[in-house]
User: Which sequence fits this backbone?
DNA sequence: AAATGTGTTAAATAAATTCTTAATAAACTT
DNA sequence: AAGTTTATTAAGAATTTATTTAACACATTT
């Protein structure tokens, strides 16, 4: 077994760990738990993993792996695969960062656009009511109008963000910014 | 004072609160503390604020406001302004979401590109050493090569992300995706 | 120069989140 | 159909993070 090829084996592990550390560190700035971040980074170098393999590899509990892998599935960074003959579920990490980027940011931005535009529409209606209200003093009307206009202006941004999402989803953005740039 | 224009005044506050709530909720998904998120959203409807005004407005401690506003300055969503005659520092919220977007994501992505590319370069050097190492078995060499190629492929993504940052910083992206789209 | 007002830092408390152990449910095998 | 394996859910423990209170430092004014 130990044919003294221990050193290169160790070096491979160290090299992987450098990348795993960097990926995990950036990921948990993305609102992912440390366990999920480590898990994804670990899976990045594996073909596929079962929950038990994850547990032994990361030295954590199985439920922790279960919830982490589910979170990663939600943001489409991990997919469940069908492995014939094994009763255990197997999971594969998305290794194409373009797809991870698309899944993560489009989901996040769409949510942001939806939530904020809804709030803005409601608020604008309220401001209009105040402007039309005869009991409002001129000063109050002026304030309402100012806020209304500010919100109206901000909508441009949310529409732009929506366009950005669409151009990423459709792949059109890669006509503007090619994937394989030379420099 | 109370000329029975209480109702429109209240309605304005309610309308603002709807938007403040939405902004704050999306913001703390961005790795900002609740206090900072609420603070920014509150400042969004104000011309400028001092630390004491923030404290009374949000009902929180002054150090909390101090650290929050500093965090917001770091991501360039708040700027310090010079107010003649007042000893208190005054702060203004960035109200142009395009600029906030630019500051926040460019900073985050640049950091990510830098960190991960550094780790990748180091790891790739290690993999090359393993490949050249005479004590490495063919199987180990194959593994090292596979990982090396996977990292090489991933670099395309980071270069693309870097290009994206550049096109946002320069404003070139708005030639591709205009700010004022009609639909 | 002393004193007041303002902002920041440090330590401690409070709150929230993450992880684990234990129990339950589901699915597959014999 | 019973038993075994696997995954999930629920509840509890522990760590981490956020906020506050208290002390400090700085600056400005008198």
Assistant:
């Amino acid at each position: 077994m130990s044919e003294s090829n221990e050193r290169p084996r160790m070096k491979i592990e160290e090299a992987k760990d450098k990348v795993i550390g960097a990926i995990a560190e950036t990921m948990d700035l993305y609102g992912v738990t440390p366990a999920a971040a480590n898990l994804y980074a670990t899976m990045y170098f594996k073909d596929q993993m079962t929950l038990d393999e994850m547990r032994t590899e990361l030295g954590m509990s199985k439920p922790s792996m279960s919830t982490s892998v589910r979170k990663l599935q939600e943001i489409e960074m991990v997919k469940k695969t069908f492995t014939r003959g094994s009763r255990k579920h197997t999971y594969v990490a998305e290794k194409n960062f373009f797809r991870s980027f698309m899944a993560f940011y489009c989901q996040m931005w769409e949510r942001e656009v939806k939530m904020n535009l809804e709030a803005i529409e409601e608020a604008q209606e309220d401001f209009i009511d105040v402007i039309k209200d005869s009991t409002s003093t001129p000063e109050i009307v002026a304030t309402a109008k100012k806020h209304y206009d500010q919100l109206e202006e901000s909508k441009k941004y949310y529409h732009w963000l929506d366009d950005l999402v669409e151009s990423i989803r459709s792949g059109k953005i890669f006509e503007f910014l090619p994937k394989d740039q030379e420099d």
Observations:
- Chain A has two domains: 6-95, 106-176.
- The helical segments of chain A are 6-27, 34-43, 51-58, 62-74, 97-132, 138-170, 173-176.
